[in-house]
Amino acid sequence: MRELKIGVIGTGRIGAEHIRRIQRHLSGAGVAAVASSSPKRAEKAAELYGIPEVMTAEKLIRDPGIDAVLIAAPGSVHEQYLLACLECEKPVFCEKPLADTGESSRIILEAEADAGRRLIQLGFMRRFDRHHRELRELVCSGSMGHPLMVHAVHRNPRAGEDFDDRMEIMDAAIHEIDVVPWLLGGDPLAACRVLHGRTASCAEGKLYDPQLMILETVSGVLIDLEVFTHCDYGYDISCEVVCEQGTVSLPASVSNIVRQGSYRRVREYDFWKERYQAAFDMELQHFIDGARAGALEGPTAWDGYMAAAAGEACLLAQKSGKRQEICYMEQPALYQDAEGFGR
Ligand code: ISE
Q1: Where is the Gfo/Idh/MocA-like oxidoreductase N-terminal domain (predicted)?
Q2: Which candidate among 27, 50, 129, 268 keeps its CA 20 to 30 Å from the CA of 6?
C-alpha cells in the first residue's frame, strides 16, 4: 500500500509536534504539504522536516495530491476546514475540540452523517493512554461494583497567552468532559456547575484560574474536576473513580522514586507533550492505518459533538454560577454501532 500523503493545517505547538511524529516516528505516511496562518512558521516547519510544499489551507484540502488532512489550527476555524474535507471526501484527523461551539459541532456532525461514512477522527488522545484504558477496563469489569463518584484534576503549568475562560473549558477541560464519561463505560454528562474563587495572580485579568466543575452523569455519578492552567509546577492529570467496593486511580508519577537526605522525590511531567507522548503516537498511527484501509477508528465526530455540547453548557454555567442541564441532539445512525479503538 502506498504511503499516505498528509496535508497539515496549523504549525503551532500541537501542529509542530504532529509533524515531527509523522516525519520521524510513525510509519505509512509523510507530510506532503503544510499550511499555517503564519507563513513564516509554515516555511520553518517545511524546512525543518523536509516538507515539499507550503500552501493555503483551502488549496491543501482540495489538492488531489493530498490523501488526508490533519487540522491543528484553533477550534474557531475547524468548521470551515472540516466541511471542506468532507466535501472532498478526505479522511481528516482533527485536534480537539471538534469546534468551539455546540452549534458548529452539530453542523459538522450532520455533514458527516449525510456523507454516510466516517471521515473524521478526533484528537481525544487520552483514550489511547495505557493507564486511562486500564482504568476503564477495571471500572467496566464491574469487579468493584458501580461507580459512584470521580475526583479529577487537570493542571497545566503554563497555558498559552491567549487562554481565557472559554478556553479553560473548551481547550483544557474538554479532555475530561470527553474522557470521564468514556471511563465510566459511556455514561453521558447530564448537568454541570462551574465555580471559581480566588485566582492565581499570574492569571488575574485574563481568566478565573483555577475553576471547579461539578458534573453529573445520566446514571447519577458525581464528578468534581479542578482545572488549573497556570499551576506552575508541572503537567498533572489525575483521576480517581470511587466505586461501591473500591477505587481506581491513574498513577501519580512519571519517574522512579528517589529517597535522599530525608526527602522522597519524584519528577513531575513537564508538559502535555511528555505526559501523552505514547498516546499521541498511537492515535495518529491509528489514523494513518485507518485512512489507508479506508476505515477510520478512534474517537468520532459524535464524541466531539457530545463534548462540545457539554462544554457549551459548562460555559453557560460558568457565567451564571447555576446548575445547567446538558442536552444533546439525537444520535445519527452512522455512530450508533461505531466501534474500534478508543470507543
Ligand atoms: C492545551 O490546549 C491542550 O490541548 C492540552 O491537551 C491540555 O491538556 C492543556 O491544558 C491545554 O492548555
Answers
A1: 4-119
A2: 129
